[in-house]
Amino acid sequence: MVMDHKYKSLESVRDALSLLVYPIQLSVDLPGSVTEWLNESLASRRELQEEVDSLRTQQFMQKAQMQKFAALQAENIRLRELLDSSFEIGEKVLIAELMSVNLDPYKHQVVINKGEIHDVYAGQPLVDAEGVMGQIVHAGPYSSTAMLITDTSHAIPVQVNRNGLRSIALGSGAINRLELPYIPNSADIQPGDLLITSGLGGRFPPGYPVATVTAVQHDPGNAFSSVVATPLAHLNRSREVLLIWPGRTTVIESNNTVLLPTAADAEDGEVPAEAAADAALDSNTGNDGTAAAAE
Questions:
Q1: Cα separation of 69 and 60, whole Å?
Q2: Are residues 49 and 118 in the same domain?
Q3: Which terminal Cβ of the chain has fewer Cβ within 10 Å, N or C?
Q4: 40: part of which helix (H) or strand (E)?
């Protein structure tokens, strides 16, 4: 020990012994190291997943709310008095997920995972992050069936965002095609025009984008032009959708937690929209309770 302390004569022996002992030390420490690594990995993954889910939800909500800005800008250009208009933004919305898709080529319908226990009602508007998707035609306790705007039985009142020209967009049976059959030849409409909901009839709130005009054909022998539009909503790709309660201005997440009550609620009082929605549904649907058309 004295010789090793003064002259380091056993340094090589010590190095060799440490090399032999290292695997034993590693095996003894391995369970603790693995446990610590797993805890850190799982915690980091869980936190990242929660952050990603939160950001995805915020982005989805913000994109849906941004849809109305183009309509507001057009109204400002036309110098409309926004304070005297019934146009409102910030309706109550609820995120839902698609459960199944109707494979019948003649019926464009989907099933979502929200129902009557979430205050969903027949005739309720349905949108995704890009535009209007359709409306609820049947609300069950825990799930609901929605008809897409391209279904041949669906119609939605629209207007050209550029000049306010109003029309009806009919489903054609093709997932990427809408038809506007009642546009006069003299009407100011052209490819590229944005079609938004007009709000007529009270079923769909005004200002939500619906489609973009892709083709306009004028036939001198007919009174009306042939106008075709492409829906903006991802009808065959969206997995998450937004249910809208027109006239309600409370934004909620998928867990039904209230986030942002607006000033309009404080001034007017919170008035339930279910009664108004049922009245609108009764006036716009047939006796069988299904919505053959939007209005």
A1: 15
A2: no
A3: N
A4: helix 11-66
